[in-house]
C-alpha cells in the first residue's frame, strides 16, 4: 500500500516540476491488483485538499483527485473573530450595525461545559427544604407498650418506631443545600458558549431598544410573529425593564424578559431566539472582560 502511495507522490512532484508524468495505472506489486485512476480510497487524511480546480488540470494526477466536491462553510465557528451584525427594532427598521466581540460571541462550542453549568444552576436553585422526623422528634409517649415476656408478641420498647403507624422515618431527608461548586471561569465560559451557539445558529438579534408604545399584548404577539422560525423568545434589556413591555409579555408563555444582569445559560437554552439590546450587549461584554475576583 505504501509503495502505491510513494509512486503517486513521485508523479505529483514530477508534474509540479514540469517533467513528463507517467500516465499508466499504478500497480501494487504486493497484491498485483490495479488501482483505479479515479481515487485512492486509503488517502483519508484531512490535510489533503479534495477540491477540483480548473487551473490545476494536468498538474495533479487523477489518482489524487476525488470526483466529489466538498462544500466549504461560509464561516468557521470558534475562531474568536469579531462579528458585525445589523441592529433593528420591533418595527424591523434599520438602526445601523454593531460589532460583537469575538472572545464572547465566537468561542468554540463545548457541550461538556454547558452540561456542567446547567447542572450547577439547577442544583443551586433547589430549595432543599425537605424534612422528616426522627425518633426523638415524633410526638408520642416513651412508655414501654407492654411487658417484655409472656404476651406472645414481638418485644417493643416504644410505639414511635418506624414500623408503627405514625412513627418516625429512619434515614430520611433533612434540610440541606444541594449546591455544587463550580469555578467562576467555567461559569463565564458557559455563558460565552451559549451566546456563541445562538450567534452560530443565526438566532441572536440585536435591537436598538425594547420600548413599545402601549401595554397591549397583541402588539408583542404581532412582533414575534414577524420573526421567522421563532417558537420561544428571550428579551434581554441592558437596564430596567420597560413597564409596558413587562405588562405586554406577562400573559405570553413563549416570551420572557430579563435584565442583562440576570442573563444565564439555562434561560438561553430554554429559548430558541435571543433578542438583546445594544446596552445589554455592551454590559455582557464588559462583564466578560472584568477580572475575576478570587
Automatic annotation (TrEMBL):
InterPro entries: Ribosomal_uL4, Ribosomal_uL4-like, Ribosomal_uL4_dom_sf. Residues 144-158 have a biased composition (Basic residues). One of its GO terms (molecular function) is structural constituent of ribosome. Belongs to the universal ribosomal protein uL4 family. Residues 129-177 are annotated as: Disordered. Keywords: Ribonucleoprotein, Ribosomal protein. GO terms for cellular component: ribonucleoprotein complex; ribosome. One of its GO terms (biological process) is translation. Residues 129-139 have a biased composition (Polar residues). This is Large ribosomal subunit protein uL4m.
